[in-house]
Predict the structure.
Amino acid sequence: MSRTLLRGARVVTMAPNRPDAERIDILVDDDRIADLGEHLDSPDADTVDLSGRVVIPGLVNAHLHTWQAGLRCVGADWTLPEYLTHVHGTVARHYNPEDMRIGTLAGALNQIDCGTTTLGDWCHNTRTPEHTDAAVDGLLRSGIRAVFLHGTAYVTPDSPHPLPEVDRLLDGPVRTHDLLTLGMAIRGPQYSTPEVAVADFRAADERGVVVSVHQSGGEPAAGWDAVREAGLLGPHTNITHGAGMTDEWIKTLVGAGVTFTATPENELGQGHAVPVTGRLLRLGAAPSLGTDVDTVVPGDILTAARIALAHQRGLDHEHHRQSTGMVSRTPSITGKQALSWATVEGARALGLADRVGRIEPGMQADLVAIDARALNLWPAHDPIAAALHAGVGNIEAVMIAGQWRKRDHHLVDVDLDDVKDRLRGSGERLLRHLDTSARI
Ligand SMILES: [Zn+2]
């Protein structure tokens, strides 16, 4: 059993009833946080001096199609219809299991590099069981904590989710790996018939797993009524985007405990519609955050938090100006709230709030050390702002379940050159199938 004592950092625990930031030590025992406090003593522990750093809970990226890492940057100017045509309509069909493995491995490693310790991997290019297993293997090799949200490649609206695959995964790798849990990424009411939507929600409910759906532009489909009437909405239900839903529907869903994941950069840039952030906050709820598509936007969840924060503050300022003729004197949202979206709320959305998202004794030791001595953050008067303003280069160290996955600004135990070589080979082969003149 290994013990690690982290000393000297300013710690943002995100725990209720604690200061926003405090200079305390953190004692890690095996995979858990054992103790917090000033001047902790543990002679047998590996003591690490983190003076000048800010330590925050491991970040949570609640929605990423990790398999797309080999396609990075190709779609930075794509609208949503262009993305759907080029990726799902064309390139995704040419993925083989090795493309899934290296894309997922590289995508997950990048998440760790960016400070993400828990990933909602919304995997919907599971063309064969071999594709699925390769994606799971990529996650496991990376060392990240993940909820593998098992999805499907294109199927007709009357095709139910393939439950034998879900059960095979539950009986296989998910049962034997502590860092992996399973969820179902179903097509949901927007992309399937009401009967199929109800059956898929019920299947997830019977298995006790998180069920996640896309809900993008347009009115909510009839299937939402059917799912609600069947009593299948609850805290295990996660909606990504939530754009296009009426205020009445949002209220109903929040009332049922449903969680929302906003992916602000591509929602705004690609035409999904306006992030749901403000509509949730007005109901006393809050979003979790995702980065969705490496093909289109970067995977850094702190950037997503800043964009969500700035976008909603902008809307709120404009609303205040229009209603009073004056600039607002107080902020509508704090930086701490934005950091909670990428920690506490992400953990809640993925069904892991009892394990991650806060630094407290008994929680999993998922921690991020931010080097606030760097020129772009120093003198970092406010630790929460320093965390929120950190770039990837400021993420000095990342611990997942008590294991260092990044130290001294470098990923641990990874042959990154090999990963990058294989990712480039995969991406170049796949993009030979891209035809940007294809009809949308
Ligand atoms: Zn998505």
In short: The first strand starts at residue 3 and ends at 7. The radius of gyration is 21 Å. Residues 59-344 form a domain with the TIM Barrel fold (CATH 3.20.20.140).
